[in-house]
Specification:
Elements lengths: L5 H7 L10 H10 L10 E5 L7 H6 L3 E6 L2 H11 L4 E4 L12 E7 L7 H14 E13 L4 H5 L1 E2 L5 E3 L12 E2 L3 H7 L3 E13 L5 E12 L3
Parallel strand pairs: 1-2, 1-4, 2-3, 4-5
Antiparallel strand pairs: 5-10, 6-7, 7-8, 9-10
Length: 223
């Protein structure tokens, strides 16, 4: 199993319509890829691009944007706003990535982490193949096993995946993958890990809740 059909329903209903670039992503890209200093525009692929929250950032540094998502509603939203200024494809990025590359930067904001481990491994193999030599994968918000929700979800055949959430941040999104350090290192064993941050957030009000996620920059380690 890979793509959760629930995401199309959420996007069609107007949920998860984030349109601002993610600050953690901006920071990691500027620090490790420095796209604004390139002589040739960077080719950027985003998997699970949703309604295009990071497109304005890519356009700011002059990059060429390619986006893959399996939600027709999300991609329609992008086309209405950006027209032919971006290249888009509807596909399950754990099964097929229609763009060949090479790409200088691959963006993933909490997309692969909504899949089973075997599907994530398959997608990362395809992504590594599409990176240019020295290109980087930048992923943020890979959910961590320290999350309270890891204990509350319904177990699946994959020990890292939970499902069946009816309330909270993961209500209605299908499966959710939670990784520990060993899992992250194993998943990215084909890459050279440039940085790996484990972020923990303890909310006190309106209710006590612990969230945790991984942010990673991984470089293509071979030609």
């Amino acid at each position: 199993m890979s793509f959760s059909a629930e995401w199309e329903a959420l996007y069609a209903a107007g949920a998860h319509h984030s349109v601002w670039p993610w600050s953690e992503l901006i920071s990691l890209i500027m620090r490790h890829a420095r796209p604004h200093q390139r002589e040739v525009p960077a080719r950027v692929l985003e998997i699970g691009c949703g309604v295009g929250a990071n497109i304005s950032f890519v356009q700011w540094f002059g990059g060429q944007f390619f986006g893959v998502d399996n939600s027709a509603s999300a991609l329609k939203n992008i086309r209405q706003r950006y027209g032919d200024k971006v290249q888009l494809a509807q596909a399950d990025f754990c099964e097929n990535i229609p763009f060949d590359g090479p790409f200088d930067i691959i963006i993933d904001r909490a997309s692969l982490t909504h899949n089973f481990t075997a599907s994530i491994e398959r997608s990362l193999d395809m992504l590594e193949e599409r990176l240019a030599p020295g290109g980087v994968y930048v992923g943020i918000h890979w959910f961590s096993t320290v999350c309270d929700d890891f204990k509350h979800g319904e177990p699946t055949e994959d020990p890292y995946v939970r499902k069946g959430y009816t309330s909270g941040d993961f209500a209605g999104v299908g499966q959710v993958h939670f990784a520990d350090l060993a899992c992250m290192e194993r998943l990215f064993s084909r890459f050279s890990i440039e940085t790996l941050d484990h972020v923990i957030s303890d909310t006190v009000r309106p209710r006590s809740q612990r969230l945790g996620w991984w942010n990673i920059v991984a470089k293509k380690s071979r030609n």
